[in-house]
Write a structure and sequence with these properties.
Elements: H1 2-9, H2 13-36, H3 42-62
Helix pairs in contact: 2-3
Length: 70
């Protein structure tokens, strides 16, 4: 349990927020409405919400400065 708490403390939440907000808005809302004219369904919104949030967490670990890696 302590490892999970430590892992969540190491997440750069600012990076997660950037990836989540911009990619979610573009790929889930803007792209289907403007380019494909597909309807936005609840399942697409939930899937996009979860997937871009998880991807944001992954990117926060990848984009860490080299000096921060232990």
């Amino acid at each position: 349990m302590e490892k999970i708490i430590r892992l969540f403390k190491e997440i750069n939440w600012k990076t997660v927020l950037y990836w989540f907000v911009f990619m979610f808005l573009f790929n889930v809302i803007l792209f289907p409405l403007v380019f494909t004219k597909e309807p936005i369904t609840l399942s697409k919104v939930i899937t996009g919400f979860v997937s871009w949030f998880i991807f944001g967490i992954i990117m926060s670990f990848i984009s860490k400065p080299k000096g921060a890696a232990k």
